Amino acid sequence: MNSSLKSQKKSVVVTGASRGLGLAICTQLLQENYFVVAISRSLSEDLSRLCEEHKQSIAHISYDLADLNGIHALCKSITEAHGRPYGLVNNAAIGLDGVLATMHNSEISTLLDINVQAPILLSKYLSRSMMLNRTGRIINISSIIASTGFNGLSVYAASKAALEGFTRSLSREVGKAGITVNCVAPGYMQTEMTSSLQGDKLESVKRRSPLGRLASPADAASAVLYLMSEQAKSMTGTIMTVDAGSTA
Amino acid sequence: MSELKQTILTSMEHVALIADCTLVENISDDTVLLQSGLDSLGFAMLVAQLEEELGVDPFSEMELAVYPRTLGEFVNVYSNALS
């Protein structure tokens, strides 16, 4: 793209960009005139369409965040190709549903690598560029499961609680450099990741919500957009819950 | 003074400026890094600045964690990484 046009836009790195909440975040960032570096294992049809519609404002990188050793090189290549990023949205996560007692150790390790270690390493390397710019935004996608608990999601819950603890302490560490660090904790959303939540379980979640429905990926993406904005410059170390009131 | 050491000192001055730190005078190889005037965030910024300038982050590439104590040791870490 035209380099002067690109330099006028703030660039934001979004992981897990191919579907669900990640895709909604990319869509809203593009609407608000950010340059998006979308990371996902593969290019979904929806993300491919978004890239086609916004050729000048989005770059897709195929990367599997389970490869922790390559994250430094990934961040270096992002900075070299697109300049110092303004924002990072750690959205990529896997949610393995299952009883802990029978969950394979390799599945526990993979979940913790992708949901906890990868966001920490991405924050480590990309916050450096933000420090040099004296401004930046790191937004970690947590879940209400971090504080409420759900049968069959103990390891996922542990990973999200870890991310919230990480957010609070990192906000204290990098605040002096003008970087804010926050979490968005969505409730149950109808995405591919939560597709196992059907029937009575789904109806029960909807019934418990004061608004009588689930929050949508677009609702949670709007919270991310707010935290990314200049208007949120005084918010750091917080957890924003977007769950249609189900944890109220 | 080696070109590398000069690059590191120039970067330290740049980082001190943007990190709102004041460097001590007469920094030498024996200057203890934590007494140089840069705080821990300043050192993170220095590593970031040097990665942009030199293209390497030796600390990430090392298998074991290494924390140089003096400027001389810090310069050696970069010298080894670039050799």
UniProtKB/TrEMBL annotation, chain B:
Keywords: Phosphopantetheine, Phosphoprotein. It comes from the Bacteria. It holds the Pfam family PP-binding. Residues 1-82 form the Carrier domain. InterPro entries: ACP-like_sf, PP-bd_ACP, Ppantetheine_attach_site. This is Carrier domain-containing protein. It comes from Alteromonas marina.
